[in-house]
């Protein structure tokens, strides 16, 4: 019995340590990005009122991140360190009370400019993931490689507001032509307008 207990304890501490590692990596990457941002602004010569206060807290979402920085973040080392090669929603798990998940994901993770939950959705938890029709690297992660459909919130775990933002961004991207997509194949019944027997015999004679 004691052997099993020791084993479980070791497993528990190991999993906790790995979890801490993941969370610390994410906070490091975000802090790294923020610091880079501040340094860039300083290099440009913009006056920053109190650099420390300008670096907002982790849960503050009142200041939206520009798309250009979001696109740069998708290609940065900080992003690769945090997510690797998998889609951003792959390792996210919903957190709910009781045995069964609620029928829908939550309406929104952000209320009055701040994150209002301890388990925000994959888009809300990382403020540098910007849903926009120009940020194609992010949009392709939400499109199924098998049938080209947009992956449901049931699988990705996005909150309803971010899922709506995603739909808008993808439809806009298709309109602007920043992402490619397949037009559904249609099979036409040509016999309806080419009077079959006459037309076919004519074409054969001409050849
Ligand atoms: Zn959310």
Describe the structure.
- The protein starts with a helix and ends with a helix.
- It has 207 residues and is mainly α.
- About 7% of the residues have low confidence.
- The chain has a two-stranded antiparallel ribbon.
- It has nine helices and two strands.
- It has two domains: 49 residues; 120 residues, 30s Ribosomal Protein S18 (Irregular).
- The protein is extended and about 80 Å long.
- The site of zinc ion has 7 residues, from helix 5.
Jot down its keywords.
binds zinc ion; 49% helix; 207 residues; 2 strands; 30s Ribosomal Protein S18; mainly alpha; 9 helices; 2 domains; two-stranded antiparallel ribbon
Short description:
With 207 residues, the chain is an all-alpha fold.
SSE inventory with pairings:
Elements (H helix, E strand, L loop, with lengths): L1 H43 L6 H4 L12 H8 L2 H7 L26 E2 L2 E2 L6 H4 L10 H4 L13 H4 L3 H17 L19 H11 L1
Antiparallel strand pairs: 1-2
This protein binds zinc ion.
The counted number of beta strands is 2
Count of separate structural domains? 2
Q: Report the portion of residues in β strands.
A: under 5%
| Ends apart, CA distance between termini | 87 Å
